[in-house]
Write the structure tokens for this entry.
Amino acid sequence: MAMNKKQLSENIRNVRKTAKMTQEQFGKSLGGTRLMVARWELGTRIPSLEYIEKIARCVGRSPVDLFNGVFEVNGDGNA
């Protein structure tokens, strides 16, 4: 099964928005940087498995869900 980078990027952005964090806040909460998060959201970089696990934990989902699922943010900021 091929990974859909665009979907992964969108899911990371939606996880961050669900957590109601800026890119900088989200990066720091994961032990990284704003630039790292920006690159993931743009699809120019793919997070390591360590970060995939941390991102999924932010919203209580499986790391697999970041690749296969669709995280949509509704009007109140929840997925």
Q: What stands out?
A: Residues 5-18 form the longest helix (14 residues). The two ends are 25 Å apart (CA to CA). The helical segments are 5-18, 23-29, 34-42, 49-58, 63-68. Residues 15 and 53 are 12 Å apart (CA to CA).
